[in-house]
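Researcher: Go.
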Amino acid sequence: MAGTVERVAGFGIFVAVEGLDPFGVVADVAGMHKDAADDAVVIWPEVGESVTGVVVQHMENNGKVKIHLT
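Model: Structure:
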């Protein structure tokens, strides 16, 4: 899945994906890239940056999608 970072929050990022609701795709901190030298350091994409990820959860009740970045 590919999209553009639309908002950064304390728990992860919201990703705009064509055909899905605004703020309908989230990459939480667990699914973010880590620094190669220190995996405790999370690398946060910035608003407007293109990202790709794989779907790890789809919530049927509200259509929200959780991804891990690739």
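Model: The mean pLDDT is 89.
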